[in-house]
Amino acid sequence: MSIPPLPSSVLIVGSGGREHALLRSIAGSHRKPRVICAPGNAGMAEEAPCFSVAADDIPGLVALAASEKIELVVVGPEVPLALGLADALRAKHIPVFGPGADGARLEASKIFTKELLLKYRIPTAAAGFFSEAAAAEKWIDAHPVPTVVKADGLAAGKGVVVASTRDEAKAAARALLAEGGKRILIEECLSGTETSLLVIVAGPHYLILPPAQDHKRAGDGDTGPNTGGMGTFCPAPISTEALSLIERTVVKPSVEAIAAEAIDFRGVLFIGLMQTPSGPSVLEYNTRFGDPETQSVLPQLGFDLLAILWAAAQGHLAAHAPTASATTPGGEAVVCVVVAAKGYPGTYAKGDVIGLPSGLPSHTYLLHAGTARNGSGQITSNGGRVLNVVASGKDLAEARERAYAAADAITWSNKYFRRDIGASSLANPPPRRQG
Ligand code: AMP
Ligand code: GLY
Questions:
Q1: Cβ within 8 Å of residue 137, ≥6 positions away
Q2: Rounded-to-integer distance, Cα 307 and Cα 25, Å
Q3: If DSSP codes are grouped into helix, strand and coil, which group holds residue 255?
Q4: DSSP-based three-state secondary structure for 285
Q5: Distance between CA 246 and CA 107 in Å, rounded?
Q6: Pairwise CA distance, residues 87 & 284, whole Å
Q7: Of the candidates 79, 134, 255, 305, which lies 20 to 30 Å from 18 by C-alpha distance?
Q8: Is 265 helix (H, G, I), strand (E, B) or coil?
Q9: CA-CA distance, 349 to 66, in Å (whole number)?
Q10: Interval between CA 282 and ligand 2 midpoint (Å)
């Protein structure tokens, strides 16, 4: 099936490290498109025009795409997707990479997703759904601990409590239910290794990107509160056999289930997986690129990202999907270390002046997330996750060495980053995947 020529103008929606990574890859396409961003950040503004339209301003973004004659919109964050940005753009015949509000429900409602997983027998933790504390407490009493208590809706990573005692689980259930009468789910706690799998989906067709591993807790050794993600590496150490089991039992059935539910999904299905001793199990779906997974996954791709996003946005991915082996060139490792403001994910200062290193190790670069420029033109902190250091190397050890040398060279009084991104895998280097 033929698809129109690649777009000459692209709008990237969002302002994080993920969007800066997307900007780099898309601007680097052989098509050399004109790329604009909304709202972007200080680093993205050095590479592309940034417009001060907020990522959740749906009419503003549609008007911007129309007035700038944009041929493809690539949506980074989940909130505009859940608010129907893709639907609003498609209604104006503007192609977009990202699902409509129906597909975005797979991230915006954990109960909707759990029901879909159970209906299509896709492996996932057993769960109960509750709107009243008494019933939730009864379930907790009847099941072993630890249990996991989850808010149904979008909560920016703050709606999940892994409770090690029944009292803790009950308190979490009561607290989440008290927040406006929403429903919650409570599920069995799985143990194993977590993996992030980004899958580009267009209807029944999909392309699995190399697996990554995130580090969600704020502190070294997986301690402290959950965050949006403190660092990733790619590829995650998964054997070819394990990956094909994941494809057979999770990816293919998920894509088929979404199509069977008549959801026209054109975007990223990000599958959060737990690799348990009895096989892979779905923790969650997100319906967008991961942050900071994208930062370590995109450098691993052996194809033109814009061509794939464009094909998926047209619903014709099958015609343009490269073979899976094209996604893993050279067996290199990529590490992304998130440099955050001290205090994140709690309270933290904004407006600190940041000194960026004048030179970086080879194969190493910085991406911006929560940054701005002050009146004197200095780079300042403007969020919780502020910068990303991305480094590649012949192996994980070399990539880590480069990334940490660069992170150490950033001068900023409130700088904080985890020192152990990828450390647990050093003893078990990723197996080479066969092409
Ligand atoms: P979610 O947003 O559902 O992915 O949950 C956020 C984090 O909580 C996950 O990345 C896991 O670290 C943890 N988590 C969620 N569900 C479970 C589960 N059933 N068992 C163990 N850990 C879980
Ligand atoms: N890093 C996890 C996420 O993007 O939700």
A1: 170, 173
A2: 11
A3: helix
A4: strand
A5: 20
A6: 23
A7: 255
A8: coil
A9: 37
A10: 14
Mutate to test the pocket of ligand 2, among 214, 227, 230, 418 (most ligand atoms within 8 A of CB): 214
For residue 145, CA distances in Å to 189, 194, 278, 347 come to: 8, 20, 19, 31
Q: Is the pLDDT of residue 327 over 70?
A: no
> Is the shortest distance between the CB of 245 and ligand 1 below 6 Å?
no
- 22's enclosing H/E stretch is helix 17-27
**Ligand 1 center to 154 CA (angstroms):** 14
Q: Are 223 and 198 in contact (CB under 8 A)?
A: no
Q: How far is the CA of 67 from the centre of ligand 2 (A)?
A: 32
Beta strands in 174-257 (DSSP E): 184-188, 193-202, 205-208, 213-214, 217-219, 223-226, 231-234
pLDDT at residue number 318: 78
Please report the pLDDT score of residue 1 as a whole number: 62
Say if ligand 2 is within 6 A of residue 214 CB: yes
Cα separations in angstroms, 197 against 190, 247, 306: 18, 10, 19
The average confidence (pLDDT) of the chain is 93
What pLDDT, on the 0 to 100 scale, is given for residue 435? 34
Residue whose CA is at the smallest distance from ligand 2 atom 3 = 290
160 lines ligand 1 (CB under 6 A): yes
Torsion of CA 405, 433, 296, 429, to 10 degrees: -30
Alpha carbon distances (Å) from 200 to 55, 107, 271, 309? 22, 15, 11, 8
Query: Residue 29: which of 288, 385, 310 has the closest Cα?
Result: 310
C-alpha dist (Å) from residue 148 to 8, 89, 281: 46, 37, 15
Measured in angstroms, how far is the CA atom of residue 297 from the centroid of ligand 1?
A: 21
d(CA 280, CA 273): 6
- SS3 of residue 155 by DSSP: coil
Q: pLDDT tens for residues 139-177?
A: 999 999 999 999 898 876 668 889 999 999 999 999 988
Under a CB-based contact definition with an 8 Å cutoff, are residues 109 and 152 in contact?
A: yes
How remote is the CA of residue 225 from the centroid of ligand 1, in Å? Answer: 13
How many residues would you count in the chain? 435
Full-model pTM: 0.94
Residue 189 alpha carbon, nearest atom of ligand 1: 20
Query: Does the structure show a pLDDT above 90 at 267?
Result: yes
- 32, with CB counted inside 10 A (0-12, 13-18, 19+), is exposed
Q: What is the Cα–Cα distance from 172 to 189, expressed in whole angstroms?
A: 15
- pLDDT of the residue at 225: 86
Q: Which ligand sits nearest to residue 270's alpha carbon?
A: 2
